[in-house]
Design a protein that fits this description.
Rossmann fold; 5-stranded parallel sheet; two-stranded antiparallel sheet; 13% strand; disordered N terminus
C-alpha cells in the first residue's frame, strides 16, 4: 500500500486511519504520467479532472487535452467564504468556455457541501499548508471525483492540486492511489508542477485574464494569509523611508517575504 510522507510522524500517521507512513523513496509521478500517455498509443481516453480553481486547471487542461476527453469537476467544499466559492466557480466556467481543446472540455459543478469539509478537517490542527487538515481536504475531494468517475464511467480520475509549488505530489498521488483501489477506478498519476507547469499556469492566467486568488481556499488558509499580510503591512509601516522588497514565486504568492533595505 502506498504510504504517506513523513513530516510529523504521530500526526500524519493518524490523518487517514490505517494508512502507514510513506517510505523515503520519492516517486516521479510526472514520469509515470508520461509513460502512461505513451502506452495509450494515441487512443483518447476519458478523464474526470478535479479542479481547485481556473488558474491551476489552465495548464493541466492544456497538457491533458491532447490525450484525453476531459470533464472538469469543480468540487471544493473547503472554499471560504461563500462569495469566494462562487467567484472561483464562475471563473472556472469562463475558462472552460473560452479554452480551445482538440477533444473538448466539459464541466460538472459539485455541491457546495461545506459540512463535508468541516466534519473531517475542522478537528485537525492547521499548522501550515500541507498539514493534516490539508490531507483530509485532498481526500474529500479526490474521493468525490473517484466516486463520480466510477458511477458515470470515466476511464480515469485525477486532480489539478499537484500543480501548486506548495502542495506535495507524493501525498496527493498516494491518497489518489488508495482511493482508486477502494472505489475501483483508475487514478491518473501526475505532478503538474513539473515541466514548468506552474510557470505555464501563471502565463496562461495572465494571458486569459483569470482571477488568481491569494490563499488556497479554506477559512484556515485565509486566516493564515490575513496574518501574513498584516505582518507585511506592519513591517512596511515600521520602516517608513526605507526600500521595501516583497518577494514570492508569483505576483500573488501566498508565501511572500519582506526584505527591508535601510537608507
Amino acid at each position: 500500500m502506498q504510504k504517506y510522507r513523513e513530516n510529523s510522524i504521530n500526526t500524519r500517521a493518524n490523518v487517514l486511519k490505517d494508512k502507514p507512513i510513506k517510505n523515503k523513496v520519492k516517486i516521479n509521478y510526472q514520469k509515470k504520467l508520461d509513460e502512461l500517455i505513451l502506452s495509450l498509443n494515441g487512443e483518447v481516453k476519458s478523464i474526470l479532472l478535479h479542479s481547485c480553481c481556473a488558474p491551476c486547471s489552465s495548464y493541466c487542461v492544456e497538457y491533458l487535452s491532447k490525450h484525453f476527453k476531459i470533464t472538469v469537476l469543480f468540487y471544493n467544499p473547503n472554499i471560504h467564504p461563500r462569495e469566494e466559492y462562487f467567484r472561483r466557480l464562475e471563473e472556472q466556467k469562463t475558462f472552460i468556455k473560452n479554452i480551445k481543446s482538440p477533444n473538448g472540455v466539459d464541466i460538472i459543478e459539485g455541491d457546495y457541501d461545506t459540512k463535508a469539509f468541516y466534519e473531517r478537517a475542522a478537528n485537525r490542527a492547521f499548522e501550515r499548508e500541507g498539514g493534516p487538515a490539508c490531507l483530509e481536504c485532498y481526500h474529500i475531494r479526490l474521493k468525490k471525483a473517484a466516486e463520480l468517475a466510477k458511477d458515470i464511467g470515466y476511464d480515469y480520475f485525477a486532480t489539478t492540486l499537484s500543480i501548486s509549488p506548495h502542495k506535495n505530489s507524493q501525498d496527493i498521488n498516494a491518497i489518489g492511489e488508495d482511493i482508486a483501489r477502494e472505489v475501483g477506478v483508475m487514478h491518473l498519476p501526475s505532478d503538474f508542477k513539473k515541466k514548468n507547469g506552474f510557470k505555464r499556469s501563471v502565463e496562461l492566467s495572465d494571458k486569459l485574464g483569470l482571477y488568481r486568488q491569494d490563499y488556497c481556499g479554506c477559512v484556515y488558509s485565509k486566516r493564515e494569509r490575513d496574518l501574513r499580510f498584516k505582518k507585511i503591512e506592519e513591517e512596511i509601516a515600521q520602516n517608513e523611508g526605507s526600500k521595501i522588497i516583497v518577494t514570492g514565486c508569483c505576483e500573488d504568492c501566498r508565501h511572500r517575504q519582506v526584505s527591508v533595505l535601510k537608507r
